Every structure is written in structure tokens, then in C-alpha cells.
């Protein structure tokens, strides 16, 4: 079975602002910041909104208040939440405490406020999941390197589903089951399609299937990577390490 998935998955629904280009998100923020609607929301409402985003510490919420005050030009507790929430959606990124999540979120120009929260599940990058953190970091590096089509050969039905769920809105993905017969012609087409092919050696993977992708006689094999470790996070980390290792910065003339 081949599973192919393109942009706009579940993640785009959960965090729509994460999928906007920085310019669009900034334009929305500016639009709402201009309207300091003086409909009293009550300080409790803003505090509850921030707690729901994982900010349980008073000090963290104070930092957000100071930031909002600069944006709306008045006490944010006295401004309607309708005007505040779009600012939070586009500018605030709460992370779980992991430096990797913080670094990835800081890459976005629009996240002008990146703060550690107390609830890892509310992390805007990983949602408290090691697999999600590793997958999103790998996907970002793949996109940076122009590798948008990822072919995974081998793995279990469970890991296939997880990869599809995690990567569907980030990259194009095809998964080849390692215990299904495949012809050489089909494998050639898979390799032709892929920017990066991962042969997942330590999983359910018949030799007859893997050798279609790994034998060295074809000219398309440079983009084949044999993965040694098990588990979704380990697979993604191995790809990340490969991309970091093989990265060639584009030199500037002169
Ligand atoms: Zn995180």
C-alpha cells in the first residue's frame, strides 16, 4: 500500500496561525493591535486564556501582559478578548522547556514572544511529544534542503500511521510496506519520485524489497539513506543528523 499525503492536515486546524506566512500573520496582528477596544473583559478572562495556553506562572503571564500593553496601548485586562486573542495566536509561542522547541519557534519572525510554559502538552512546537518534536524538526530541515518528497521503505503499520499523521502537512510522504511484493519497475518509479528515500533496516522489511531500493547499480541511489534505529523519533533524528552532516552552505561570490 502506498500512502501519499500533501499539505493542510490536522495540524493546520489546531494551530492555523502556524501555517500563515510571517507577513500575513504580522498584517493580522497589526490590524487587531490598532483597535484597542475598550470593552472590559475583566482580568480573570485574560488570566484564564493564558493559563489555557500553558502559562500557569504569574511571572510568565506578567511578561505577556507587558508585551500586550505595548501592542494595544492600554491595560490588556481592560481590552476585549476578541482583540487580544488574534495577537496571542500570531505572536505568542509557548514551549515545553526543551531548547530544541524554543530554537525552532524563534526561527519564526512573527513569534515575538517565546515563553516556557508549565504544561508540555501546550508546547506550540511539539505538543509534549518526542515523536512530534523530532518529526517537525526533520521536516523543517528537509524543506530547507529542498527535499519535499520523502519515501519510507519498511516500518510497521503503526509507525506508518504515525508518520503520516505527523508529516502530512509538512512534506509529501510515501510509505512502502516492507512485507509486500514490489517490482523493480515500481521501485524505480518510487526512487524517481523521491527527494530522499529512507530504507528502515531494523523494522519489518524483506530483503527482496529492500534490495530494490539499496542496490548500487542505478544512478538515482545517492538519495537513499539506510536507517539503523527503531522508532519514529529515532528515524527522524537519524535523517536530521544526515541533513546536518551533508549540508553545504551556498557560497557567496566575492
Ligand atoms: Zn516542545
Topology readout:
Blueprint: E1 2-5, H1 10-14, H2 22-33, H3 43-52, H4 58-72, H5 81-91, E2 92-95, H6 99-106, E3 113-116, H7 130-144, E4 149-153, H8 157-167, E5 172-176, H9 184-193, E6 196-200, H10 207-214, E7 224-227, H11 232-246
Parallel strand pairs: 2-3, 4-5, 4-6, 6-7
Antiparallel strand pairs: 1-5
This protein binds zinc ion.
Describe this structure in words.
The chain is of the alpha/beta class. The protein folds into 2 domains: 13-122, no CATH class; 130-246, Rossmann fold (3-Layer(aba) Sandwich), CATH 3.40.50. Helices cover 47% and strands 12% of the residues. It has 11 helices and 7 strands. The protein has helices at 10-14, 22-33, 43-52, 58-72, 81-91, 99-106, 130-144, 157-167, 184-193, 207-214, 232-246; strands at residues 2-5, 92-95, 113-116, 149-153, 172-176, 196-200, 224-227. The strands form 2 sheets. The protein has a 5-stranded mixed β-sheet, with helices on both faces. The protein has a two-stranded parallel sheet with strand order 2-3. α6 (99-106) links the parallel β2 and β3. α7 (130-144) packs parallel to α11. The radius of gyration is 22 Å and the shape is elongated.
Amino acid at each position: 500500500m502506498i500512502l501519499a499525503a500533501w499539505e493542510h492536515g490536522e495540524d493546520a486546524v489546531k494551530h492555523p496561525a502556524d501555517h500563515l506566512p510571517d507577513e500575513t500573520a504580522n498584517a493580522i496582528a497589526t490590524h487587531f493591535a490598532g483597535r484597542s477596544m475598550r470593552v472590559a473583559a475583566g482580568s480573570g478572562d485574560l488570566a484564564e486564556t493564558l493559563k489555557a495556553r500553558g502559562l500557569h506562572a504569574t511571572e510568565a503571564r506578567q511578561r505577556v501582559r507587558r508585551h500586550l500593553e505595548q501592542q494595544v496601548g492600554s491595560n490588556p485586562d481592560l481590552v476585549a478578548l476578541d482583540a487580544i486573542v488574534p495577537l496571542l495566536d500570531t505572536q505568542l509561542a509557548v514551549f515545553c522547556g526543551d531548547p530544541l522547541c524554543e530554537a525552532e519557534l524563534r526561527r519564526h519572525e512573527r513569534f515575538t514572544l517565546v515563553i516556557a510554559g508549565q504544561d508540555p502538552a501546550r508546547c506550540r512546537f511539539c505538543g509534549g511529544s518526542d515523536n512530534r518534536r523530532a518529526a517537525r524538526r526533520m521536516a523543517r530541515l528537509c524543506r530547507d534542503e529542498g527535499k519535499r518528497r520523502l519515501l519510507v521503505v519498511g516500518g510497521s503499520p503503526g509507525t506508518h500511521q504515525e508518520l503520516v499523521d505527523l508529516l502530512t502537512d509538512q512534506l509529501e510522504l510515501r510509505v512502502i510496506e516492507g512485507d509486500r511484493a514490489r517490482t523493480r519497475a515500481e521501485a524505480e518509479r518510487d526512487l524517481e519520485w523521491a527527494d530522499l528515500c529512507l530504507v528502515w533496516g531494523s523494522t519489518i522489511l524483506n530483503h527482496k524489497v529492500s534490495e530494490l531500493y539499496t542496490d548500487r547499480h542505478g544512478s538515482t541511489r545517492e538519495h537513499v539513506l539506510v536507517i539503523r534505529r527503531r522508532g519514529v523519533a529515532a528515524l527522524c533524528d537519524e535523517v536530521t543528523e544526515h541533513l546536518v552532516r551533508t549540508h553545504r552552505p551556498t557560497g557567496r561570490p566575492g
